[in-house]
Amino acid sequence: QYVACGVVKTNPQFSFAHRLNEFFEGINEVVQVHSPVIAAVEDVFLATNPRSALKLGHARGAAVVAAMQNGLTVYDYSPRSVKQAVAGYGQAEKSQVQHMVRVLLGLSGAPSSDAADALAVAICHANQFQL
User: Fold this and answer.
1) What is the pLDDT of residues 51-65, one digit of tens each?
2) SS (HEC) of the chain
3) Other CB atoms within 10 Å distance of the CB of residue 66
4) Is the confidence at residue 131, as pLDDT, over 60?
5) Is the model's pLDDT at 99 over the cut of 90?
6) Strand partners of residue 78
7) Residues 6+ positions from 84 with CB-CB distance below 8 Å
8) Phi-psi region of 71 (alpha: psi -120 to 50; beta: other; left: phi over 0)
C-alpha cells in the first residue's frame, strides 16, 4: 500500500560531506515519521560516470546506515530484479516501471520517476517475501 513519497533535498552550496549528513538526517526523519519495520534498497548500478557512481554509493550507504541506526533490517535488490518484479522484464525502461508501479498500486496518477523507483523496490521486496 502506498503511504507517502518525497525527496530529501540537500543544499548544493555545502560540501559533499555536509550534504551526505543532511541526507542521513533526512532519512532518519522519514523513518521516525512513518515507522517502517524494514528497509529495502537498490544496489548501485554501474554508471557511465565513475564519479557519479561513487557519489551514489556514498548516498546509498548513508541511507543504509540511517535505516540500521533506527533498528531496521535492510534488504538489497539488483536493478534487474526490481525491474523483473514490477514490469516482468529485467531490462524494462524507466517509463515502463513507472507505469507498472501506478497500475500495481492503483494510483490515480503516475508517480515521479524517483518515487516510482523507490516504490518499485518496495514492490520487489513485498514479492520476494510474500508480504
Assistant:
1) 888 898 999 999 999
2) CCCCCCCCCCCCCCCHHHHHHHHHHHHHHHHHHHCCCEEEEECCCCCCCHHHHHHHHHHHHHHHHHHHHCCCEEEEECHHHHHHHHHCCCCCCHHHHHHHHHHHHCCCCCCCHHHHHHHHHHHHHHHHHCC
3) 22
4) no
5) yes
6) none
7) 90
8) left
